[in-house]
Amino acid sequence: MKIFVSGKGGSGKSTVSALLGMEFAKRGREVLVVDNDESNYGIHTHLGLDLPKDFMYYFGGKKDLFDRTEDIKDGMETENLPDEYLSKEGNLGLLAIGKIKEYGEGCACPMNVLSGEFLKSLSLHDEEILIVDMDAGIEHFGRKVEDGADIVLLVIDPTRESIKLSEKITEFAHNIDKSVYFVLNKVDEETETIIYESVDENKVIGVIPEDERIFKASLNGKPLDFQLGSVEEIVDSLVEVEEKVLRPFKS
Ligand SMILES: Nc1ncnc2c1ncn2[C@@H]1O[C@H](COP(=O)(O)OP(=O)(O)O)[C@@H](O)[C@H]1O
Ligand SMILES: [Mg+2]
């Protein structure tokens, strides 16, 4: 199952991706988290893993990426991913597409082309979970990167921008032709109620309250390795979607 985690900057994409990844791994699933945000570095810390080498260098680095699109389209299987680009502990792995590192180095387009094709053509085993921590906002929807997803998870924090983004994604949903779900994040009782007034509640797959442990672990650069009932419930629901929607004919 391929899960793409989207949302506005700061909504909690990396946090949610890491928490889901660790919970799936705890349940014995083979998990690959892909850091697809060219601007942020945090997710390896959330997962308690080392920062892997940028995967774009496997394809020759940023300037050669456009020429290699056909190779990338050929597809890969997770077991053939080169070890030197993977950071791994047990059944939890992390791959980072690439980061902007220098002032004036140009746009992130080559990395985005790589990630779009790579994520679409990567083949998973039946029990494997791919969790993609997407770049902020909506640009990747314009490039149809979500074609590679089974499930699009939109993280909604208590801001008007997030609500607006959810409206936009709902509008896209029938074109995306994917299961689109919302995770309300960093909410309390009051803000949760306000969000529910504005978003399609049938799409809400889970709610993660504002939690000081998350915030402090992040601030201190510590892994998010504590148990959260809210995250367990989201993983239960995702497994249900996997069983009922994504492979209903499997015996
Ligand atoms: N449920 C939560 N409770 C408290 N703080 C949170 C929660 N989710 C995310 N945060 C904090 O919000 C900030 C942004 O989260 P992050 O996952 O980096 O967002 P994004 O990846 O969408 O930019 C971080 O400081 C993170 O610790
Ligand atoms: Mg992030």
In short:
By secondary structure, the chain is an alpha/beta fold. The protein has helices spanning 13-26, 43-47, 69-73, 109-121, 139-142, 160-176, 189-198, 212-219, 229-246; strands spanning 2-7, 31-35, 86-89, 92-96, 129-133, 151-156, 179-187, 204-209. Residues 13-14, 37, 40, 42, 133 line the site of magnesium ion.
| Morphology call | globular
Average residue-wise pLDDT:
89
Distance between the termini: 17 Å
Total number of helices: 9
Tell me the layout of helices and strands:
Layout: E1 2-7, H1 13-26, E2 31-35, H2 43-47, H3 69-73, E3 86-89, E4 92-96, H4 109-121, E5 129-133, H5 139-142, E6 151-156, H6 160-176, E7 179-187, H7 189-198, E8 204-209, H8 212-219, H9 229-246
Parallel strand pairs: 1-5, 1-6, 2-4, 2-5, 6-7, 7-8
Antiparallel strand pairs: 3-4
Helix pairs in contact: 1-9
The protein binds adenosine-5'-diphosphate (ADP) and magnesium ion.
Note down, in words, how this protein is organized:
An 8-stranded mixed beta sheet has the order 3-4-2-5-1-6-7-8, sandwiched between helices. The model has no long low-confidence stretch (mean pLDDT 89). The chain contains 9 helices and 8 strands. 37% of the residues lie in helices and 18% in strands. β7, α7 and β8 form a beta-alpha-beta unit. The two termini are 17 Å apart. It is globular, with a radius of gyration of 17 Å. The chain has one domain: Rossmann fold. α1 crosses α9. With 251 residues, it is of the alpha/beta class. Adenosine-5'-diphosphate (ADP) binds next to α1, β7 and α8.
